[in-house]
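quick one before i forget lol
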Amino acid sequence: MKTFFTCLLVLISFTIVAQKKILDHKDFDTWNRINNQKISPDGNYIMYALEKGEKDSYIKIKNKKGQSIYEHERAEKGEFTYNSNFALFTIKPWKDSVKELKREKVKKNKLPKDSLAIYNINKSLLSKIGNVKSYKSPEKWEGFIAYLLDEVKAVKKEDDSTKTATKKKNKKKSKKVSKDNGYHLVLRDLNTSKQDTFKFVLDYIFAKEGKRLAFTTTGLDSTVKAGVYVLNLENNKLIPVFEAEKAKYFQLNFSDSGKNLGFVADLDSTKVQVRPNGLYYWNEANGKAQKLLDQTTAPNGYRVSSDGSINFSKDETKLYFGLAKPPIVKDTTLLDEEIVNVEVWTYDEPRLYTVQELQVKNDTKKSYLTAIQINNNNKLEQLGSTEYPYATIGDEGNSDIVLVSNSLPYQLESQWTGNTARDYAIVNAKTGELSKILTKVSGRVSLSPKGNYAYGYNTVDSTWFTYNLVNKKLTNLTKGKVFYNELNDSPVNPRSYGSAGWTENDTSILLYDRFDIWEFNPENGSGKKLTNGREAKTRYRYLKLDSEERFLNSNENWLLQTFNETTKNSGYFEFNPKNNKGKLLISDSYRFSTPIKARENKQVIFTKQSFEKFPDIIYSDLSFKKQTKISNANPQQIEYNWGTAELVKWTSLDGEELTGMLIKPENFNPNKKYPMIVNFYEKSSDGIFSHKAPSPGRSTINYSFYASRGYLIFNPDVNYKIGYPGESAYSCVIPGITSLIEKGFVDKDNIGVQGHSWGGYQIAYLVTKTNIFKAAESGAPVPNMISAYGGIRWWTGLSRQFQYEHTQSRIGGTPWEYPARYVENSPIFNIDKINTPLLIMHNDADGHVPWYQGIEFFVSLRRLGKPSWFLNYNGEPHWPLKMQNRKDFNIRMQQFFDYYLKGAPKPVWMKRGVPAIEKGINQGLELLPKVE
């Protein structure tokens, strides 16, 4: 009887597994993503959006027990108000409806517009406002919301005589809302729903802490003139701060209290090229804004910038703004045929011309930080300048010492180093005195929270340091200690592991080594280890739970995240900085997120995920003892064959022990042989517990999709030897594959390989050295390191030289220093040895890898008659971004691998291609009859 029931259970289990569905491309559109998860400030409510494929987003609001209190379709961008009484979100028009209107050639300005939703949590009441262009709510107080509308419908009823008079009046040209005239600003009291409307508003802003609203308007009539206004919401008094016809306003901003306001105004209505901007300042104690600076009073050779942001120091004693150099004036009398457009590239100019070209807009908007001491007779001190253009203010602007820097002397060499050094100086915001402090620092230097120290990590000597800005003392903190990347395998100085931050009053700085957190005295460099992770190979990192946190509070426990390098388990750890002791709160075979904490208490939301487990939202407190699952985004997953992920180990040809990920189908049978796809980049095994939801990826195979369809996926880590990246990949990847073949469940005759960019290059190299792969997809590959060395990364305009000399490509020098290395690592010189059918995807707008590299690869294969196909998604960058192209790529890649690794029918596009005359019409995805 016992045997009978055992057999029955096995049969039932087999039936359940057998009945599960296999993932297909259409299933991508049934999977939800969780976006914009928020917890209310009081910790009682959670809001998030579900987005399913290309369908409309769906807002859900739940209480801390996971119970739904409100839902709304086609909604997104949810946020809670400061006191948790209201939820705000945007309601979009139905996507399908918009698509149909576009098909009917409806003009863009006639398409349906967004609506603003205001949900009263306490009263379970929803208010919707249509045709909202934008909305803002106060950051640190509650009670009001402001939003811009295209039009405001009249509410007041009119009698016949009034209507007749209105019609006659409207025969005159009436002012209409527009980008230039402004739109209607509605201020709504969230508690009473009462509204005030201010017409033809161009810009508006709430103060961060004070109950004030400022706006600029082009004016309505004699009662509301064009200008700048401040509304005091404590007494409902509207204050005309500044009045001017046809003025343009920029950088409108309050101090935190709302008692100070700054803005830039251009009062000239002509088209003069050099705009006569003026800087204006208003204080609540004064009636009108006063002009502080204009083109006649600005420092010689500078003008008030309309692009430099205006900010106030936290103590509201300083106003910061931007000064700019005069623009280069064009000769507007020249005709197009009289203008010479020629690019002049110079060998010794700091920035490569292609970089300059991409940064023209930024260059025209460049401004230099300047301070006005509003408590000291509006004294002006220029902080940034052409000599030191980049400025950082300390202690939220309160400090009188400003850190400035300049990278110009070292920009030319960054073309091949890939790293920009900087000179640093300090400026006294009271006196304007400049003192040079650091020269040619390779690594970013920052200011401590209170502004007492400059600090950073110099990659040249792999050392953290501090610089006391008062007594000008430099202190090396980690010289001779290993606080740099121990596993660095690139021909570049190793990076640091980073910093957790500073304790109160700049008392100490917390630095990371590979595993632990250390506390250092910034004055004398003495340090002590706070955690004990190295022995167990467990990494400890501080989790910042308050976005406004400026320092680590030594009077409260800290939440740390743990990660074990061997098991890849992660978790949370509570650390007491008073006694330097702590306890592990949770650790498991999951990948845990950084929790999002409620502002007013210790309630948090977080996620944990694995290959099998979707990262649903979980509610808890900082003890993590009681956990409540809030979301259930993809319950349908249980209906599908999925898969499992495990770590595997093997030894490279160089004798190094390596780790990788092996993904197996859910119903894996070790006695069966499976086709396998190898997919890799550099090192990926730390992501063993990352969830892989079904989706049409931009550049790589989807692990859950292929596992569901009966494939094994192997992702091996690669250790690199400088100068020999191709050989390194071979030494690590091929032994990993053979170690799996030896286990007996890999079909050695049906192994494919797929990768993109750096992965695409390594695949191109491997197929010149081995025939172990039956098919390969190589995305955006570099087959020729010599020609690629001289290429441009078009998204940034940067030369590709640094990549080969110092970073990812790992050659370690120039082609004239190491010509053999460039040849040996370039697949193009051994392309005749390729016997593996290749699918290549390289798009003509690629900004990372010049697409002529993919062309070089393909036309050489074509010249040799090697089976190969080339996909170019027109206008797409390094990978296809448009959803229709991503879906198409995933279908073609699956058909390619199924044909070679599973013996599936061949698709039309692989048989006859898609002729240019049929592009965009016939895709050739149909399968040909299978030939027996």
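fyi The domain at 646-918 is CATH 3.40.50.1820 (Rossmann fold).
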